[in-house]
Amino acid sequence: MASAVCANKKMEVDNNSLALLEPLIGRWTMEVQTAQGSAYGITTIEWIEGRGFIRIIADNNPNAPPSSVCLIGRDQDRVGFDVLYVDERGLARSYQMSFAGGIWRIWRDQPGSFQRFQARLNIEGNELVGS
């Protein structure tokens, strides 16, 4: 059960459909291999609006991919998650996402924009390795 404030009234939000993403919540150090070498940043994954949504904030160094913010939500009647993305360049996109068996996948299938990300959460739950 989560809560949010709406018109000075407390509204209870129950979005248990996001509960399986709990292992991703935390502050992560990111390392990305680019043509210029390794680039680093900090990615924070946190609950917002009680536990109604998840926000990902990627604060990256200049050589890394752009700093960005993502919001993750889920329609409890559908499989998978929805991700809204915006970055420091002003680029805004929507993605589909899954997380099962320790595998985190994010993808976009749009004409001219076919993108894929996949990472595996290690058994200790403290490292994501992906591409």
Walkthrough of the structure:
The chain has 131 residues and is an all-beta fold. The chain has one domain (2-130). Helices cover 0% and strands 62% of the residues. The protein is built from no helices and eleven strands. The chain has strands spanning 2-6, 9-13, 26-34, 37-48, 53-60, 68-73, 81-87, 92-100, 103-110, 113-121, 128-130. Strands 3-4-5-6-7-8-9-10-11 form a nine-stranded antiparallel β-sheet, with no helix packed on it. Strand 6 (68-73) and strand 7 (81-87) form a beta hairpin. The protein starts with a strand and ends with a strand. The relative contact order is 0.14.
Oligomer: single chain
What count of structural domains? 1
Strand and helix order: EEEEEEEEEEE
| Helicity, as a percent range | under 10%
- Could you tell me the radius of gyration in angstroms? 16 Å
Main sheet: strands, sense, barrel: 9 strands, antiparallel
Counted beta strands: 11
Spans of at least 5 consecutive residues whose pLDDT stays below 50 are none
Please state roughly what percent of the residues sit in beta strands, choosing from under 5%, 5-15%, 15-25%, 25-35%, 35-45% or over 45%: over 45%
Structural class label:
mainly beta
Anisotropy-based shape: globular
Determine the mean pLDDT: 85
Within the largest sheet, what's the order of strands? Answer: 3-4-5-6-7-8-9-10-11
